[in-house]
Amino acid sequence: MTYGPVMNELWSRVYEQERAKEVLTRLVQTRRVPHAFLFNGKEGVGKFFTAVQFAKILNSNSTRSPEKNEAIAKRIATLQEPYIKLLIPLPRGKNETGDDSATEKLSADIMEVIRNEIHTKAQNPYYTINIPDANTIKINSVREIRQFVSMTHEDVEYRFILINEAHLLNEQAQNSLLKNLEEPPEGIIFILNCSEKEKLLPTIQSRCWEINFEPLSAKSISDILVEYFHCEVQTADELSGFAEGSVKNAVSFLGDANLKEQLASTISVLRYSFARKYNSAYRELGAGTDQDNIRLLIKMIKIWLSELVKNKFLIHPSFFKDYEDTLSKFNFRYPGIDIAAIYSVLDELEGSIDKNVNLNVLYLNLIFELASLTMRK
Predict the structure, then answer these.
(1) Does the pLDDT of residue 343 top 90, yes or no?
(2) pLDDT single digits (tens) 54-92
(3) Distances in Å between the alpha carbon of 275 and those of 28, 280, 348?
(4) How many CB atoms sit inside 10 A of residue 49's CB?
Protein backbone atom coordinates (compact mmCIF):
# COMPACT_ATOMS: atom_id res chain seq x y z
CA MET A 1 0.00 0.00 0.00
CA THR A 2 1.44 3.41 -1.01
CA TYR A 3 0.53 6.45 1.07
CA GLY A 4 3.08 9.00 -0.19
CA PRO A 5 1.30 11.14 -2.83
CA VAL A 6 -2.07 11.05 -1.05
CA MET A 7 -0.50 11.79 2.32
CA ASN A 8 1.46 14.77 1.03
CA GLU A 9 -1.63 16.22 -0.62
CA LEU A 10 -3.83 15.77 2.46
CA TRP A 11 -1.23 17.11 4.89
CA SER A 12 -0.69 20.17 2.70
CA ARG A 13 -4.22 21.35 3.55
CA VAL A 14 -3.46 21.44 7.29
CA TYR A 15 -1.90 24.74 8.28
CA GLU A 16 1.47 24.34 10.01
CA GLN A 17 1.74 21.66 12.76
CA GLU A 18 4.75 20.18 11.00
CA ARG A 19 5.98 18.29 14.06
CA ALA A 20 2.63 16.62 14.61
CA LYS A 21 2.35 15.69 10.94
CA GLU A 22 5.91 14.34 10.94
CA VAL A 23 5.19 12.02 13.89
CA LEU A 24 1.96 10.78 12.32
CA THR A 25 3.70 10.28 8.99
CA ARG A 26 6.37 8.08 10.57
CA LEU A 27 3.72 5.97 12.28
CA VAL A 28 1.89 5.49 9.00
CA GLN A 29 5.05 4.58 7.11
CA THR A 30 6.14 2.03 9.72
CA ARG A 31 2.58 0.72 10.03
CA ARG A 32 2.85 0.87 13.80
CA VAL A 33 -0.21 2.96 14.47
CA PRO A 34 -1.25 3.12 18.15
CA HIS A 35 -4.86 2.42 19.03
CA ALA A 36 -5.27 5.75 20.88
CA PHE A 37 -3.93 9.29 20.52
CA LEU A 38 -4.09 12.39 22.67
CA PHE A 39 -3.90 15.49 20.48
CA ASN A 40 -2.92 18.14 23.00
CA GLY A 41 -2.85 21.90 22.40
CA LYS A 42 -4.86 25.07 22.71
CA GLU A 43 -8.19 25.36 20.92
CA GLY A 44 -8.26 26.63 17.37
CA VAL A 45 -4.89 25.32 16.12
CA GLY A 46 -6.01 22.49 13.83
CA LYS A 47 -6.19 19.36 16.01
CA PHE A 48 -9.59 18.38 14.61
CA PHE A 49 -8.54 18.88 10.98
CA THR A 50 -5.36 16.89 11.54
CA ALA A 51 -7.41 14.01 12.97
CA VAL A 52 -9.77 13.96 9.98
CA GLN A 53 -6.91 14.10 7.48
CA PHE A 54 -5.11 11.33 9.37
CA ALA A 55 -8.22 9.16 9.08
CA LYS A 56 -8.29 9.78 5.32
CA ILE A 57 -4.59 8.94 4.97
CA LEU A 58 -4.83 5.65 6.84
CA ASN A 59 -7.81 4.61 4.75
CA SER A 60 -6.36 5.51 1.38
CA ASN A 61 -5.58 2.33 -0.52
CA SER A 62 -3.62 2.18 -3.75
CA THR A 63 -5.32 -1.11 -4.67
CA ARG A 64 -8.72 0.59 -4.84
CA SER A 65 -9.93 2.78 -7.65
CA PRO A 66 -9.41 6.55 -7.26
CA GLU A 67 -13.18 6.98 -7.31
CA LYS A 68 -13.63 4.56 -4.40
CA ASN A 69 -10.88 6.23 -2.37
CA GLU A 70 -12.44 9.62 -3.03
CA ALA A 71 -15.87 8.41 -1.91
CA ILE A 72 -14.46 7.04 1.36
CA ALA A 73 -12.48 10.24 1.98
CA LYS A 74 -15.65 12.28 1.45
CA ARG A 75 -17.58 10.20 3.99
CA ILE A 76 -14.79 10.62 6.51
CA ALA A 77 -14.69 14.38 5.86
CA THR A 78 -18.43 14.64 6.47
CA LEU A 79 -18.06 12.68 9.74
CA GLN A 80 -20.26 9.80 8.67
CA GLU A 81 -20.61 6.62 10.65
CA PRO A 82 -19.41 3.88 10.51
CA TYR A 83 -16.19 5.62 9.43
CA ILE A 84 -16.01 8.17 12.24
CA LYS A 85 -17.82 8.31 15.55
CA LEU A 86 -17.76 11.90 16.81
CA LEU A 87 -18.24 12.57 20.51
CA ILE A 88 -18.87 16.16 21.56
CA PRO A 89 -20.24 17.96 24.63
CA LEU A 90 -24.04 17.80 24.66
CA PRO A 91 -26.74 19.35 26.85
CA ARG A 92 -28.74 17.20 29.23
CA GLY A 93 -32.24 16.31 28.10
CA LYS A 94 -35.36 16.69 30.19
CA ASN A 95 -35.64 13.78 32.65
CA GLU A 96 -32.61 12.17 31.06
CA THR A 97 -31.09 9.18 32.86
CA GLY A 98 -27.96 7.14 32.37
CA ASP A 99 -29.99 4.50 30.55
CA ASP A 100 -31.05 6.90 27.81
CA SER A 101 -29.04 7.45 24.64
CA ALA A 102 -27.06 10.68 24.45
CA THR A 103 -29.69 12.47 22.39
CA GLU A 104 -33.09 10.77 22.79
CA LYS A 105 -34.31 13.18 25.49
CA LEU A 106 -33.17 16.30 23.65
CA SER A 107 -35.76 18.53 22.02
CA ALA A 108 -36.24 18.68 18.25
CA ASP A 109 -34.91 22.26 18.24
CA ILE A 110 -31.69 21.28 20.02
CA MET A 111 -31.25 18.29 17.70
CA GLU A 112 -31.51 20.63 14.73
CA VAL A 113 -28.85 22.89 16.26
CA ILE A 114 -26.57 19.88 16.82
CA ARG A 115 -26.98 18.67 13.23
CA ASN A 116 -26.29 22.15 11.86
CA GLU A 117 -23.22 22.61 14.06
CA ILE A 118 -21.73 19.27 13.06
CA HIS A 119 -22.45 20.00 9.40
CA THR A 120 -20.71 23.37 9.71
CA LYS A 121 -17.74 21.72 11.44
CA ALA A 122 -17.46 19.19 8.62
CA GLN A 123 -17.44 21.99 6.06
CA ASN A 124 -15.06 24.17 8.08
CA PRO A 125 -12.65 22.18 10.30
CA TYR A 126 -11.50 25.38 12.05
CA TYR A 127 -15.04 26.23 13.17
CA THR A 128 -15.82 25.89 16.88
CA ILE A 129 -18.97 23.91 17.61
CA ASN A 130 -21.35 25.93 19.77
CA ILE A 131 -24.34 24.15 21.31
CA PRO A 132 -26.30 25.83 24.14
CA ASP A 133 -25.68 24.34 27.61
CA ALA A 134 -23.29 21.73 26.18
CA ASN A 135 -20.64 21.72 28.88
CA THR A 136 -19.98 18.01 29.33
CA ILE A 137 -19.33 14.86 27.31
CA LYS A 138 -21.77 12.49 28.95
CA ILE A 139 -21.37 8.84 29.85
CA ASN A 140 -24.37 8.21 27.57
CA SER A 141 -22.21 9.26 24.62
CA VAL A 142 -19.30 7.05 25.66
CA ARG A 143 -21.59 4.04 26.02
CA GLU A 144 -22.50 4.40 22.33
CA ILE A 145 -18.91 3.49 21.46
CA ARG A 146 -19.67 -0.20 21.99
CA GLN A 147 -22.45 -0.08 19.42
CA PHE A 148 -20.15 1.70 16.97
CA VAL A 149 -17.39 -0.86 17.53
CA SER A 150 -19.79 -3.75 16.98
CA MET A 151 -20.55 -2.54 13.46
CA THR A 152 -18.50 -4.09 10.69
CA HIS A 153 -17.45 -2.39 7.49
CA GLU A 154 -15.15 -3.88 4.88
CA ASP A 155 -14.58 -0.63 2.96
CA VAL A 156 -11.91 0.65 5.33
CA GLU A 157 -9.08 -0.77 7.39
CA TYR A 158 -9.39 1.76 10.22
CA ARG A 159 -12.39 3.38 11.84
CA PHE A 160 -12.07 6.33 14.19
CA ILE A 161 -13.62 7.46 17.44
CA LEU A 162 -12.93 11.19 17.60
CA ILE A 163 -13.59 12.81 20.98
CA ASN A 164 -13.60 16.57 20.64
CA GLU A 165 -12.85 18.65 23.75
CA ALA A 166 -12.01 15.44 25.59
CA HIS A 167 -11.18 17.39 28.76
CA LEU A 168 -14.95 17.90 29.13
CA LEU A 169 -15.56 14.19 29.71
CA ASN A 170 -17.17 13.91 33.13
CA GLU A 171 -15.81 11.47 35.70
CA GLN A 172 -18.24 8.68 34.84
CA ALA A 173 -17.58 9.12 31.14
CA GLN A 174 -13.81 8.97 31.67
CA ASN A 175 -14.07 5.76 33.65
CA SER A 176 -16.27 4.25 30.96
CA LEU A 177 -13.87 5.37 28.24
CA LEU A 178 -10.97 3.82 30.13
CA LYS A 179 -12.56 0.38 29.78
CA ASN A 180 -12.67 0.85 25.99
CA LEU A 181 -9.04 1.94 25.91
CA GLU A 182 -7.93 -1.05 28.00
CA GLU A 183 -9.41 -3.49 25.48
CA PRO A 184 -8.95 -1.79 22.11
CA PRO A 185 -10.84 -3.49 19.27
CA GLU A 186 -9.03 -4.34 16.06
CA GLY A 187 -9.09 -1.56 13.49
CA ILE A 188 -10.47 1.06 15.86
CA ILE A 189 -8.43 4.21 16.62
CA PHE A 190 -9.31 6.69 19.35
CA ILE A 191 -8.29 10.34 19.01
CA LEU A 192 -8.87 12.60 22.01
CA ASN A 193 -8.63 16.29 21.13
CA CYS A 194 -7.80 18.18 24.28
CA SER A 195 -6.74 21.65 25.40
CA GLU A 196 -6.58 20.87 29.14
CA LYS A 197 -5.08 17.41 29.45
CA GLU A 198 -4.61 17.77 33.21
CA LYS A 199 -8.37 17.23 33.50
CA LEU A 200 -8.04 13.73 32.06
CA LEU A 201 -7.33 10.73 34.27
CA PRO A 202 -3.63 9.80 34.32
CA THR A 203 -4.68 6.28 33.33
CA ILE A 204 -6.33 7.63 30.19
CA GLN A 205 -3.30 9.74 29.32
CA SER A 206 -0.97 6.78 29.79
CA ARG A 207 -2.91 4.72 27.26
CA CYS A 208 -2.69 7.38 24.55
CA TRP A 209 0.15 8.39 22.26
CA GLU A 210 0.44 12.10 22.99
CA ILE A 211 1.06 14.54 20.16
CA ASN A 212 1.46 18.21 21.00
CA PHE A 213 0.14 20.97 18.75
CA GLU A 214 1.68 24.43 18.57
CA PRO A 215 -0.02 27.83 18.35
CA LEU A 216 -0.42 29.02 14.77
CA SER A 217 1.45 31.95 13.26
CA ALA A 218 -0.41 35.18 12.55
CA LYS A 219 0.08 34.55 8.82
CA SER A 220 -1.62 31.14 8.97
CA ILE A 221 -4.48 32.50 11.07
CA SER A 222 -5.00 35.29 8.57
CA ASP A 223 -5.03 32.80 5.68
CA ILE A 224 -7.50 30.55 7.52
CA LEU A 225 -9.83 33.49 8.20
CA VAL A 226 -9.81 34.34 4.49
CA GLU A 227 -10.21 30.74 3.28
CA TYR A 228 -12.72 29.36 5.78
CA PHE A 229 -14.49 32.40 7.23
CA HIS A 230 -14.61 34.54 4.05
CA CYS A 231 -12.89 37.40 5.86
CA GLU A 232 -11.39 40.31 3.95
CA VAL A 233 -7.61 40.17 3.81
CA GLN A 234 -7.07 43.45 5.65
CA THR A 235 -9.45 42.50 8.45
CA ALA A 236 -7.92 39.03 8.69
CA ASP A 237 -4.43 40.49 8.99
CA GLU A 238 -5.58 42.84 11.74
CA LEU A 239 -7.39 40.15 13.73
CA SER A 240 -4.61 37.58 13.48
CA GLY A 241 -2.20 39.81 15.34
CA PHE A 242 -4.32 39.55 18.48
CA ALA A 243 -5.29 35.89 18.18
CA GLU A 244 -2.44 34.48 20.27
CA GLY A 245 -2.00 31.56 17.91
CA SER A 246 -5.64 30.46 17.91
CA VAL A 247 -8.20 30.69 15.13
CA LYS A 248 -10.91 30.53 17.80
CA ASN A 249 -9.57 33.69 19.42
CA ALA A 250 -9.47 35.50 16.08
CA VAL A 251 -13.01 34.45 15.19
CA SER A 252 -14.28 35.78 18.52
CA PHE A 253 -13.66 39.27 17.12
CA LEU A 254 -15.63 38.63 13.92
CA GLY A 255 -19.17 39.82 13.43
CA ASP A 256 -19.86 43.53 13.24
CA ALA A 257 -22.55 43.62 15.92
CA ASN A 258 -20.55 41.58 18.39
CA LEU A 259 -17.36 43.53 17.76
CA LYS A 260 -19.11 46.89 18.05
CA GLU A 261 -20.60 45.84 21.37
CA GLN A 262 -17.18 44.74 22.64
CA LEU A 263 -15.57 47.98 21.49
CA ALA A 264 -18.22 50.11 23.16
CA SER A 265 -17.97 48.16 26.41
CA THR A 266 -14.17 48.44 26.40
CA ILE A 267 -14.33 52.20 25.87
CA SER A 268 -16.80 52.54 28.76
CA VAL A 269 -14.55 50.58 31.10
CA LEU A 270 -11.56 52.70 30.06
CA ARG A 271 -13.43 56.00 30.50
CA TYR A 272 -14.83 55.10 33.92
CA SER A 273 -11.45 53.80 35.08
CA PHE A 274 -9.54 56.86 33.85
CA ALA A 275 -12.08 59.09 35.61
CA ARG A 276 -11.66 56.94 38.74
CA LYS A 277 -15.35 56.11 38.76
CA TYR A 278 -14.62 52.68 40.17
CA ASN A 279 -18.17 51.56 40.87
CA SER A 280 -19.31 52.47 37.36
CA ALA A 281 -16.34 50.65 35.82
CA TYR A 282 -17.07 47.59 37.92
CA ARG A 283 -20.74 47.60 36.93
CA GLU A 284 -19.77 47.86 33.27
CA LEU A 285 -17.61 44.75 33.69
CA GLY A 286 -20.61 42.87 34.98
CA ALA A 287 -19.23 41.91 38.41
CA GLY A 288 -18.34 38.65 36.77
CA THR A 289 -17.08 35.20 37.37
CA ASP A 290 -16.62 34.54 33.66
CA GLN A 291 -13.00 33.88 32.72
CA ASP A 292 -13.69 34.31 29.01
CA ASN A 293 -15.10 37.80 29.58
CA ILE A 294 -12.04 39.11 31.38
CA ARG A 295 -9.71 37.46 28.84
CA LEU A 296 -11.57 39.18 26.04
CA LEU A 297 -11.58 42.52 27.84
CA ILE A 298 -7.82 42.38 28.41
CA LYS A 299 -7.27 41.59 24.73
CA MET A 300 -9.46 44.52 23.74
CA ILE A 301 -7.56 46.86 26.05
CA LYS A 302 -4.30 45.67 24.51
CA ILE A 303 -5.70 46.48 21.09
CA TRP A 304 -6.72 49.93 22.33
CA LEU A 305 -3.20 50.54 23.66
CA SER A 306 -1.73 49.40 20.36
CA GLU A 307 -3.93 51.82 18.48
CA LEU A 308 -3.05 54.53 20.97
CA VAL A 309 0.56 54.16 19.83
CA LYS A 310 -0.47 54.18 16.17
CA ASN A 311 -2.43 57.36 16.76
CA LYS A 312 0.75 59.15 17.90
CA PHE A 313 2.18 58.49 14.44
CA LEU A 314 -1.05 59.60 12.72
CA ILE A 315 -1.97 56.04 11.73
CA HIS A 316 -5.71 55.53 11.60
CA PRO A 317 -7.10 52.87 13.96
CA SER A 318 -8.26 49.52 12.60
CA PHE A 319 -10.61 48.42 15.38
CA PHE A 320 -11.49 51.56 17.28
CA LYS A 321 -12.37 53.49 14.13
CA ASP A 322 -15.38 55.11 15.76
CA TYR A 323 -13.24 56.27 18.67
CA GLU A 324 -10.33 57.89 16.86
CA ASP A 325 -11.14 61.21 18.52
CA THR A 326 -10.94 59.55 21.94
CA LEU A 327 -7.47 58.19 21.10
CA SER A 328 -6.27 61.61 19.95
CA LYS A 329 -7.59 63.38 23.04
CA PHE A 330 -5.98 60.84 25.35
CA ASN A 331 -2.61 61.17 23.63
CA PHE A 332 -2.83 64.97 23.80
CA ARG A 333 -3.71 64.96 27.49
CA TYR A 334 -1.34 62.19 28.59
CA PRO A 335 1.61 62.17 26.17
CA GLY A 336 4.02 60.38 28.51
CA ILE A 337 2.06 57.19 29.21
CA ASP A 338 4.30 54.12 29.62
CA ILE A 339 2.53 51.68 27.30
CA ALA A 340 5.09 48.91 27.91
CA ALA A 341 4.49 49.04 31.67
CA ILE A 342 0.71 48.69 31.42
CA TYR A 343 1.14 45.91 28.82
CA SER A 344 3.29 44.05 31.35
CA VAL A 345 0.63 44.47 34.03
CA LEU A 346 -2.06 43.20 31.65
CA ASP A 347 0.05 40.14 30.87
CA GLU A 348 0.37 39.41 34.58
CA LEU A 349 -3.36 39.78 35.14
CA GLU A 350 -4.08 37.55 32.17
CA GLY A 351 -1.71 34.92 33.52
CA SER A 352 -3.57 34.94 36.84
CA ILE A 353 -6.91 33.96 35.32
CA ASP A 354 -6.23 30.20 35.43
CA LYS A 355 -4.51 30.26 38.82
CA ASN A 356 -7.65 30.18 40.93
CA VAL A 357 -7.37 33.88 41.65
CA ASN A 358 -10.71 35.42 42.56
CA LEU A 359 -11.98 37.01 39.35
CA ASN A 360 -13.61 39.91 41.17
CA VAL A 361 -10.19 40.75 42.61
CA LEU A 362 -8.77 40.61 39.08
CA TYR A 363 -11.46 42.97 37.85
CA LEU A 364 -10.68 45.45 40.61
CA ASN A 365 -6.94 45.22 40.00
CA LEU A 366 -7.54 45.89 36.32
CA ILE A 367 -9.64 48.97 37.07
CA PHE A 368 -7.08 50.39 39.52
CA GLU A 369 -4.21 49.81 37.08
CA LEU A 370 -6.09 51.63 34.33
CA ALA A 371 -6.92 54.46 36.71
CA SER A 372 -3.25 54.80 37.64
CA LEU A 373 -2.40 55.46 33.98
CA THR A 374 -3.82 58.97 34.18
CA MET A 375 -2.05 59.67 37.46
CA ARG A 376 1.44 58.82 36.21
CA LYS A 377 3.57 61.65 34.91
Answers:
(1) no
(2) 999 999 876 778 888 888 999 999 999 889 999 999 998
(3) 61, 10, 23
(4) 20
